[in-house]
Amino acid sequence: MRSLVLATALALAAPAAFAAPETYVLDPSHSQIVFTYNHLGFSTGSGMFSGFEGEIALDEADPTASSVKVSFPVTTMLTGWEARFEHFMSPDFFGAAGDKTVSFTSTSVEMTGEKTARITGDLTLNGVTKPVVLDATLNQLGMHPMENKPWAGFDATTTVKRSDFNLGLYAPYVSDEVAVRISVEATKVE
Fold it and tell me: Which of the 8 DSSP states describes residue 78?
């Protein structure tokens, strides 16, 4: 669920003439974190977080000086089946932790291409904080055609080990590794 925190590829931008980071806030209606895992070799299970909020400090002149911060309650998880959600919230998984907040705070941005970067940060999940790396891509930076405001869109991927966050029950039968895809849109704060 590294994804979370997604926070995601938001720290990227093409070089420009700005001297300081600009603040962008996530558009909760167009930001999602989707996670997938193998279930006993028979199927690929999935879930999603959506509607969350976060902030990006986007430095177009020096993208490596950009940062991202996202947090949301784990109880906003969507699984598509109520009984699965209830099991995920039980003491077998997230119910064992006191802190139900998922958060991601970037610690560094390394450009890997004109529109790609590796965003390293601290993911807090199930009361445990571990470093994760997001492979991020800037999709677009420009004026939103409907909102008529500066807008940014990013995608990112990562893989998280459930056992790193005390969520490893049933591994390896249910995969310990969880693939995470993040897609976010953000609007510049005026």
Answer: B
User: What is the Rg, in whole angstroms, of the alpha carbon atoms belonging to the chain?
Assistant: 17
DSSP 34: E
Amino acid, single-letter form, for residue 93: F
How do residues 82-131 score in pLDDT, each as one tens digit? 999 999 999 999 987 777 899 999 999 999 999 999 999 999 999 999 99
Count how many residues are written for the chain: 190
Q: How many CB atoms lie within 10 A of CB 172?
A: 11
Name residue 7's amino acid. Answer: A
Measured distance CA(134)–CA(140) in Å, rounded = 18
The residue extents of the domains of the chain are: 8-188
Which of 184, 174, 157 shows the shortest CA–CA distance to 72? Answer: 184
Q: Show Cβ contacts of residue 65 under 8 Å, excluding neighbours closer than 6 positions.
A: 21, 59, 109
Question: What's this model's pTM, rounded to 2 decimal places?
Answer: 0.88
Residue 83 phi, psi (nearest 5): -65, -35
| Sign of the Cα pseudo-torsion (153, 4, 133, 54, in order) | positive
Where is 178: in which H helix or E strand?
Answer: strand 177-188
Please give the distance of CA 77 from its chain centroid, rounded to a whole number. Answer: 13
CATH of span 8-188: 2.40.128.110
> Does the N-terminal peptide bond of residue 172 adopt cis geometry, omega within 30 degrees of 0?
yes
